[in-house]
């Protein structure tokens, strides 16, 4: 974890990104990376897909959505999806990715970042609270909406 960096999703890292494994029970909280890749492909002007590298190894994936004109407040500057490889969790990689995405959002003029996630014991709630998000509401599907002031 000494040499963490973000790299744009590309032909070089797409296979590694797509084969990141999660811990048992976590799959229900996040769609497969392949879904994000497809979404990024059809939303090239707003999606910001990045892999997290530790040295040469792909250890995580994060995708932001930057759409200042979105009619939905919670989609203007948000973490669309993220995951850290099972074997690399608990080492600060998720925090690193959120901080990097927050810096990108700030540089684009956003003053807050939002995220939506399923509540539940094996879910990412404790992580998002630990990195500074605060719950601000709920979607019609019962997902928590949380925000980080930048
Ligand atoms: C959520 C996830 C991205 C966290 O990544 P990570 O690299 O393990 O998190 P970090 O090591 O950077 O942890 C950052 C902080 O969150 C806390 N944290 C992380 N997971 C936690 C958990 N399950 N319970 C309690 N605290 C947790 C850590 O203790 C740490 O706190 P600290 O810095 O105050 O010590 C990872 O567990 C994951 O990929 N989960 C499955 C996919 C998912 O749910 N994605 C989010 C949907 S959008």
From TrEMBL:
List the InterPro entries.
Acyl_CoA_acyltransferase, GNAT_dom
Q: Which GO terms describe its molecular function?
A: diamine N-acetyltransferase activity
Which top EC class is given?
A: transferase
Where do the coiled-coil regions begin and end? Answer: none
Span of domain N-acetyltransferase: 4-150
EC identifiers of the protein: 2.3.1.57
Alphabetical list of Gene3D superfamilies matching this protein: 3.40.630.30
* Keywords noted in UniProt: Acyltransferase, Transferase
This protein's superkingdom?
Bacteria
From the Swiss-Prot or TrEMBL record, give the protein name.
Answer: Diamine N-acetyltransferase
User: Can you name the source organism?
Assistant: Subtercola frigoramans
Lineage of origin: Bacteria, Bacillati, Actinomycetota, Actinomycetes, Micrococcales
